[in-house]
Amino acid sequence: MQFISKLPSPSEIKAQYSIDEKDALVKKERDQEIKDVFTGKDSRFILVIGPCSADNEDSVLEYLSRLKVVADKVKDKIIIIPRIYTNKPRTLGVGYKGMLYSPDPKQNPNIIKGLISIRKLHHRALKDYGFSSADEMLYPQNHSYLDDLLSYVAVGARSVEDQQHRLVASGVDLPVGMKNPTSGDLDVMMNAIYAAQQEQVFEYRGWECASQGNPYAHAILRGYQDKFQQSLANYHYEDLMSLFNLYQESNLQNPALIVDTNHANSNKNYLEQIRITKEILHSCRLSDDIRQLVKGLMIESYLEDGAQKIGENTFGKSITDPCLGWEKSERLIYEIAEAL
């Protein structure tokens, strides 16, 4: 293993790209609104929506400029949290790993530039559009670079069994969604939520740390794969009721679910997200228990439909998983608002 260069600490990056009191207040207010949804004090619906991977600052900001207009129109019913995912998990461990590693997907990895790029992008989302955003905790040690800019964190299907992810999540003062693993074993997800809600002592970035537990840790259903690598959904009425019953049998705080409408739930058929969204909303209308449990949805959406290979240069088209284009996304948000 070769040591290339020492990375700046989170405090050094934050000092160089700091937020002012106005932006900090906007984030604080959004944090409380979002937490209130998870505790049941606020009945609004959460929508975590945006590109599969935030691969380009200009196109992400163009997306946010459009999303802001819609968010203001539906704010009485929906709290929109932009999905600005700056890390990209790789099944085989190779390929484009997100803006953190490759701020320019066509060039070689540069993590120092990547840390600056992701900080600047999340900062601009807050300063220019009033959006504190969502990102995936793919690498727990990197959370501190963005913790003053985020309002939502997801722990992915490949990470949810990892001890460090669970312990760091216990010390995060934000809603943290724990995805079901790729195997679909809900006990794994529920155990992760339990661990995150407990007081913990753990090592983090060279420090011995103690947490008070995170009462906002919750479930994300994203579908799963069987032993033949076939995608199976877990967003249907019966799946939602099964999770409701699991929560009833547990001692977990603030039972809550965000449903991921893409990934294995859609078999990565991005257009299915529209139908899946409508089915989940129908389930919410059929059952008060499900409506109480389902706090919102995750939708992968960008400026253009589908996906492209790196180097094809269609502005605002995903270079990872295919996404809903803007026109379909905008229409879907308004339809969600009308259905609530």
**What's the helix count?**
10
CATH architecture name: Alpha-Beta Barrel
Shape: globular
Number of domains: 1
> Rg from C-alpha positions?
19 Å
Main sheet: strand order: 2-1-12-11-8-5-4-3
Highest CATH level, the class:
Alpha Beta
What is the succession of H and E elements? HHEHEHEEHEHEEEEEHEHHEH
Instruction: Give the number of DSSP strands.
Output: 12
Distance between the termini: 53 Å
Structural class of the secondary structure composition? alpha/beta
- What name does the CATH topology carry? TIM Barrel
Main sheet overview: 8 strands, parallel
Estimated share of beta-strand residues: 15-25%
Helix content: 25-40%
Give a written overview of the molecule.
- This protein is α/β, with parallel strands linked by helices and 340 residues long.
- α3 runs parallel beside α10 (326-339) and α8 (272-286) runs parallel beside α10 (326-339).
- It is built from 10 helices and 12 strands.
- β1 (45-50), α3 and β2 (78-82) form a beta-alpha-beta unit.
- The chain has a single domain (17-339), classed as TIM Barrel (Alpha-Beta Barrel).
- The strands form 3 sheets. Strands 2-1-12-11-8-5-4-3 form an 8-stranded parallel beta sheet. A two-stranded antiparallel ribbon has the order 6-7. Strands 9-10 form a two-stranded antiparallel ribbon.
- The chain is 39% helix and 16% strand.
